[in-house]
Amino acid sequence: MIDSPLESPTKRRSSHLWVLLLLCAMFAIGIWIFTRSAGALKLPRDPFPEGISTSLRSELMEAIQRVERNPKATTWGALGELYMAHELLPQAKHCFQNASTENPQEPKWNYLLGMIAEEINIAEALEAYQKAAQMDSSSPSLYLRLGKLQSRAGQFSAAERSLKTASDLSKEHPLVLKSMAQLLAMQDKTEAATIVYRKICLDDRSGQDLLSEAGQWFHRYAISQSEPTLSQRNQIAPHSTEPLPEPWFNGVLAHIPRAAAIAAQAGMLASNQQYDAAFTLYSQLVRSESRNSRSHAFRAMVLMNAGAVDQARSEINRVCETFPGDALAWTCKGAIEAKIADYESATSSLKKAVSLKPDYLEAHRALLMMYKLREMPTEIAGQYQILLNLSPSDTDLRADYEKFAAETGSRND
Predict the structure, then answer these.
(1) pLDDT of residue 302
(2) Selection from 403, 358, 179, 402 nearest residue 413 by Cα
(3) In whole angstroms, what is the distance from residue 353 CA to residue 370 CA?
(4) Which one of 11, 84, 333, 412 has the largest count of C-beta atoms within 10 Å of its C-beta?
(5) 240 DSSP 8-state letter
(6) Among the listed residues 94, 95, 88, the one whose alpha carbon sits nearest the alpha carbon of residue 53
(7) CB atoms < 10 A from the CB of 21, how many?
(8) Cβ–Cβ under 8 Å, residues 335 and 346
(9) Rounded to an integer, what distance in angstroms lies between the CA atom of residue 46 and that of residue 31?
(10) For residue 322, what pLDDT band results from cuts at 50, 70 and 90?
């Protein structure tokens, strides 16, 4: 109907007002719907960290779009696995938490949350693993991780129960037995630990790595070896023990960059003092995976060994600034600082490394060396105790400690 020119202005204004109010209401409803849906989907903070490769950015974008189209546990989990494979752990944690919220009965997400938390927050990791165990009690790798973590936390009785469960589920897998033997040794249960080490020696699944550890234990306590002898077993044993399967980790493994072969080759070249070639390969890894702290740290170590110490120190400082939570980077920083006799800075860097990863054996050994160079007997004694708790079957370490204790009268055990 066309408005009559004779219609009153008041009536026309009233009609226009109602139309305007209706449009405003529709707009407000649209905004509410949009903000409600956008607020429900909270992506990780910094979803595309600076320095990631173009290809990884593209992969992340596709995974994020799948979450946006269908925000369920599997899509959140797949995005988290992609982040975790590239060591973007805060983003991965966010995704796994969302996946767990979407499907609270799926143990996989708590398992992966536990793996992320292991080196950062032991209590948080324990809680995640215990939640996973309540949902699925059939995974030996879960109980092995839980038992090892409980050992680190000093929860020895709980650790024994978890490792016993892992042993039963895995048919006494030698890596589970190793953790059990170490736990018994930490409690000075020498006879019980010896029985477990004998089982390891008799298991065809044991590699030379475990047989060597068992041999050190027998030598330390002058224990006669079981048949077949260790020398006979070493001739037929594989070089290393096959790890327990971790099916909940397979999704992460599928996304790990195909750089392992290059990294292995670079490491071999560095160990053979072919520093130029090793530097070239590590530089290749840095270019292709700029967020991989290992490549940066190892390249800095190659520079140090090649004599370019100032360049090495500059590079490792950047690595620690970029990856402040990486214990290996701080250990490399300490090694480079020690190379130029800056022992105070090296000590500080190594203390940072072991605070990030309390069971990091190499960092503790380097820290012991720094304390010796700085002639700090109290710290030396304390560091020996930490190392002996971490590696109770290391006979050379035990002998070094016995000599130190005899010279200083500082024996504590």
Answers:
(1) 87
(2) 402
(3) 14
(4) 333
(5) S
(6) 88
(7) 10
(8) yes
(9) 25
(10) confident
Q: Quick one: pLDDT at residue 260?
A: 60
**Taking the model in full, what pTM does it have?**
0.60
DSSP annotation of 247 reads G
- Classify residue 309 as exposed, middle or buried by CB count within 10 Å of its CB (0-12, 13-18, 19+): middle
> Nearest CA to 271 among 228, 305, 234?
305
CB 115 within 8 A of CB 249: yes
User: Which of 279, 340, 333 has the alpha carbon at shortest distance from 306?
Assistant: 279
Q: Which pLDDT value is given to residue 37?
A: 41
Residues whose CB falls within 8 Å of the CB of residue 281, separated by 6 or more in sequence, listed in order = 262, 263, 265, 266, 269
Give how far Cα 360 sits from Cα of 33, 124, 240, 374, 411, Å.
Answer: 50, 19, 20, 21, 23
Q: What is the pLDDT of residues 285-318, one digit of tens each?
A: 776 666 667 888 888 888 888 888 888 999 999 8
Is residue 266 within 8 Å of residue 281, measured between CB atoms? yes
At residue 347's C-alpha, the angle toward residues 345 and 348, to 5°, is 65
The pLDDT of residue 164 is 97
% residues pLDDT > 70 (the chain): 81
Residues composing the chain: 413
Q: What is d(CA 200, CA 207) in angstroms, rounded to the nearest whole number?
A: 9
Euclidean distance between CA atoms 32 and 15, whole angstroms: 26
Q: How far apart are CA 367 and CA 373, in angstroms?
A: 10
Nearest to 217 by CA among 243, 183, 181: 181
User: What span, in angstroms and rounded, lies between the C-alpha atoms of 242 and 128?
Assistant: 26
Joined together, the tokens standing for residue 295 give: 């490549």
Token duo for residue 173? 């897998």
Tens of pLDDT, residues 56-115: 889 999 999 999 999 999 999 999 999 998 878 899 999 999 999 999 999 999 999 999
Spatial CB neighbours of 90, under 8 Å, sequence gap ≥ 6: 44, 45, 46
For residue 398, is pLDDT > 80? yes
Q: How far apart are CA 46 and CA 62, in angstroms?
A: 16
